[in-house]
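Input (structure):
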């Protein structure tokens, strides 16, 4: 692990079994402990990922590493939505240096 990732809070977004956007949004809300008012749409996810004030406790100070696993079935079943999700992850990481998003290629365990 590089020094710029050391010490970051790790949140795991497990998409295993997720078959639609609503499921992805629900899992993201849980993984990131987002507030009840989280809008469960792409813009709301992008804003939440780029806003350290809504990240889990301690992440704003330490930085956040969002590990996305179990995503391949979703990507294959919903390629358009997955492209949007990838764009949201990339844009948020570009806007917020304290955020790193890692897509895990192995299994979800």
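Output (sequence):
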């Amino acid at each position: 692990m590089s020094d710029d990732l050391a010490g970051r809070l790790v949140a795991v977004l497990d998409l295993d079994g997720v078959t639609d956007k609503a499921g992805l949004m629900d899992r993201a809300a849980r993984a990131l402990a987002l507030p009840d008012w989280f809008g469960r749409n792409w813009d709301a996810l992008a804003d939440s990922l780029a806003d350290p004030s809504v990240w889990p406790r301690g992440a704003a100070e330490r930085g956040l590493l969002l590990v996305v696993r179990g995503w391949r079935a979703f990507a294959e079943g919903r390629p358009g939505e997955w492209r949007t999700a990838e764009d949201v992850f990339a844009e948020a990481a570009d806007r917020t240096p304290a955020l790193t998003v890692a897509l895990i290629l192995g299994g979800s365990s």
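Notes: The CA atoms of residues 82 and 91 lie 14 Å apart. The chain has a mean pLDDT of 92.
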